[in-house]
Design a protein that fits this description.
By secondary structure, this protein is of the alpha+beta class. Helices cover about 35% and strands about 35% of the residues.
Length: about 375
C-alpha cells in the first residue's frame, strides 16, 4: 500500500504543502486546469524553483489582481467548492479541511460555524492552497497519510485581530489531540491552514515509517530560518510492514420505521460521500419492534458529513460515533489476463488472492460461461 508521509521538521503551511506536491510530481498544467473549475477570478498562480540551505525545492505564490478582496464566510467558500465541477474526492477533502478551520474559528470567537468570517484563511490564496492540496491527494491516491510531530514556534504573530500568542489560538484548537513539539524557536512554524491540512488528512503521527520511498517533494516556506531549511518534505512510497494500522470512526444508528427499499439508496449515498464500509444488521428494539442497525466505517475527517447524511436520508432521529483502531493487511489491485479476458484481483502479499466479483460477473455474462469457471480461471494465475 502507498503511504504519503508529511515530514514537518520545519512546520507546515498551505503553500508549502501545495509546493511539495508539485515538486513530488503533480503536473502544473493539471493543477491549473482543475483550479479553473472554481469560481475564482482575478488571481495569478506563480510556481517556481529555488532552494533553502542548498536543497532544491518548489515554491508557490498566489497573486491577487487589482482591487481589495472581500473576506468570505465559510458558507461562501463551501458554495464555491460545491458548485464547481471538481471531482467528488477533491470536493470532499477540500470541504473537510475548511470545516476543521471553521469549527476552530467558531470556537475561538464564540460564533456559529456558518457565521465564521474568515480573515487569514478567507483570501483566494488559501482557497487555492487547500483545493490544490486536495487535487494533489486525488492525483497520487495514497492508501494512508501519516505525519511527523509538529514543531510549535514561540512568541507572537500579527493577525487581523491584533497581536496573538504562538501557537495561534486557531492553530492550537485545530491540533487538539495531535502530538506537538514546543518552544523550539521564535516565529510561526505551523499556520492554521497547514494545521488543518495535516490534522484532517493524516490518520496518525509517527516517526519515519518503514517504507520504500518512491517520490519525494520539497515545498519551501516564505521565511529563512536560522537553524534549518524552511521546508516541508513529502515522501510517497510503498509500506513494508506486514500489517498496517490506522484509526477510523464507526457511525451507528438504530432504525425501526424506514421503508426497507430506501436502504439501497442510503448505502449508495454513503459510499459516494466517502464511507469505507456500510453494513445493516437486524435488531430487536424497544417494545419488541424489529429494527435495523446501520453501521458505517469512515475516516475521522468524514464522520461529521456522513452523520449529517444519515440524518437527512434516513428516518433516524440521532446517530452515535466513536473512534476505533484497525489492523489490516496491505493490499494492491492488479489486472491479470485469463482466457476469458482481463480481470482485477486483490492481492495481500502471500495471504490473499481474491478475484474481483464484479469483473467475474461481467466476464461471465459477456462470455456466457458460469461465474465459478471464470473465478477458477482467475485463481490459476496465483503465484
Amino acid at each position: 500500500m502507498k503511504i504519503l508521509y508529511f515530514d514537518c521538521f520545519s512546520g507546515i503551511s498551505g503553500d508549502m504543502t501545495l509546493a511539495a506536491l508539485l515538486d513530488m510530481g503533480l503536473p502544473q498544467e493539471q493543477l491549473r486546469l482543475e483550479l479553473e473549475k472554481l469560481e475564482l477570478k482575478n488571481y495569478g498562480l506563480n510556481i517556481f524553483k529555488s532552494n533553502r540551505k542548498g536543497i532544491s525545492a518548489a515554491g508557490v505564490e498566489v497573486t491577487a489582481g487589482p482591487g481589495k478582496e472581500s473576506h468570505r464566510h465559510f458558507s461562501d467558500i463551501r458554495r464555491i467548492i460545491e458548485s464547481s465541477s471538481l471531482q467528488t474526492g477533491v470536493k470532499r477533502t477540500s470541504l473537510a479541511i475548511f470545516q476543521r478551520l471553521a469549527e476552530a474559528e467558531a470556537k475561538i470567537h464564540a460564533q456559529g460555524v456558518e457565521d465564521v468570517h474568515f480573515h487569514e484563511v478567507g483570501a483566494v490564496d488559501s482557497i487555492v492552497d487547500i483545493v490544490g492540496t486536495a487535487i494533489g491527494i486525488e492525483f497520487f491516491q495514497p492508501g494512508e497519510i501519516l505525519s511527523s510531530e509538529l514543531p510549535m514556534g514561540r512568541g507572537f504573530v500579527q493577525c487581523e485581530h491584533g497581536r496573538l500568542p504562538l501557537p495561534a489560538p486557531a492553530t492550537l484548537e485545530i491540533l487538539k489531540g495531535f502530538p506537538l513539539k514546543g518552544g523550539e524557536m521564535e516565529g510561526e512554524l505551523v499556520t492554521p491552514t497547514g494545521a488543518a491540512i495535516v490534522a484532517t488528512l493524516s490518520s496518525r503521527v509517527t516517526s519515519f515509517p518503514l517504507m520504500t520511498p518512491e517520490k519525494i517533494g520539497y515545498g519551501m516556506g516564505k521565511k529563512d530560518l536560522a537553524d534549518r531549511p524552511n521546508l516541508l518534505r513529502l515522501v510517497l512510497g510503498e509500506a513494508k510492514e506486514a500489517f498496517l494500522t490506522d484509526s477510523t470512526s464507526v457511525i451507528e444508528a438504530n432504525i425501526d420505521d424506514m421503508n426497507p427499499e430506501f436502504y439501497d439508496y442510503l448505502m449508495e449515498r454513503l459510499f459516494e460521500h466517502g464511507a469505507l464500509d456500510v453494513s445493516l444488521s437486524p435488531l430487536l428494539m424497544k417494545k419488541n419492534r424489529p429494527g435495523t442497525l446501520l453501521r458505517v466505517i469512515a475516516r475521522g475527517r468524514e464522520t461529521e458529513a456522513l452523520s449529517d447524511l444519515i440524518l437527512r436520508e434516513s428516518t433516524s432521529l440521532g446517530v452515535r460515533s466513536y473512534a476505533v483502531h484497525r489492523k489490516k493487511l496491505q493490499r494492491e489491485i492488479k489486472e491479470i489476463d485469463t482466457k476469458y479476458g482481463r480481470i482485477r484481483v486483490k492481492i495481500s502479499g502471500d495471504l490473499r488472492f481474491q478475484p474481483e466479483y464484479e469483473d467475474c460477473k461481467r466476464v461471465a455474462l459477456e462470455k456466457g460461461v458460469p461465474i465459478q469457471e471464470v473465478y477458477q480461471e482467475a485463481m490459476k494465475m496465483r503465484r
